Amino acid sequence: MKLLLRTLLLLLLLASTQVIAQEAKNSNVFLITLDGVRWQDVFTGVDMNLLNSDYTHNKDELTKKFVGKSKNENRKMLMPFFWNTIAEEGQLYGNRNKGSKVNLTNTMLFSYPGYNEILSGKADDANIDSNDKNYNENVTVLEVANKSETFKDRVAAFASWDVFPFIINDKRSGVPVNAGYMDAVGVLNEKEKFLNEIQRQAPIVWESVRLDVFTHHFAKEYIKKNHPKLVYVSYGETDDFAHDGQFDFYMKSLLNTDAFIADLWNYVQNDDFYKDNTYFIITTDHGRGEGVQEDSKWTGHGSNVKGAEHTWIAILGPNIEASGEASEGQLFTDQIAPTVAKILNLKIDSRNMPAKPISLK
After folding, report:
1. What DSSP string describes 214-275?
2. Which InterPro entries has this protein been placed in (predicted)?
3. Which of 83, 109, 142, 300 is the most exposed place for a label (fewest CB within 10 A)?
4. What pLDDT is attached to residue 12?
């Protein structure tokens, strides 16, 4: 009897090991967004006009931190992971100074429509024309994955903005979403318990958007415990600091977010489940203005703000040609969801996601 039990346990362990090994062979995707970050900031670094404007409160500090001898040096100082790792090992699109363009296809040019376009693969101006907490009728790539046999219960989303349960439609999709000031739930480790305890003890800068450090660490702890195959992480501080006219905090937040993404990348490259089979796709929900004039105000975005339709995309992962910064070419934000689907070999309805995936050479 004991021999039989030992044999059964050995077979179960072997089967479990084979399942884990097979899952590890399948590609994983981390889809990451930075709210309202302009292509200019990514590709040219600190904006000298904004540095010298009333939006900056400590020019000397920002100059020391972000101003080098050239724009290329400036962008490395602002986003070192992007320019020391992604530019060397992956692909970057959206430097309009070099003819590389990424555009939104929705005409609203603010957050909910932008995130819907990123996640569902199509604009929906007729139904999504506000940031109100209405459940999204469109099916996101997260939902497609979560309802597939391969990725069922292997999808998760973490966001700083509290509207994301509605954008992802967590009730219909079944995708677990931790957003705003939501606590981690389920069987928690000590770090998650601590994060639950302190996230509202930290300064509440905005009631609808928590600080990104909490979103990041909630996501990372979940990832370490559960190893989801498709993860969505949405950092939100940058847009809100810009709306507040706080260029200092916007820049520091962008630097911090670059470090968060580097932290996730370093983790997956040292985790047997994720190493060498995980793609990072990074983008933004909209652009924003360039200056201080009303129709191009840096603090704003929307259909009345010049340049708010201009975005960018960064891609890093296995089987990605290390082509770095693209010159010339046109991409659109609605191509991101079908690209995720292609990487994961998800079956999608082309009527719902009509755009072509990005060609990942």
Report:
1. HHHHHHHHHHHHH--SEEEEEE-HHHHHHHTT-HHHHHHHHHHHHHHHHHHHHHHTTSTTTT
2. Alkaline_phosphatase_core_sf, Metalloenzyme
3. 300
4. 45
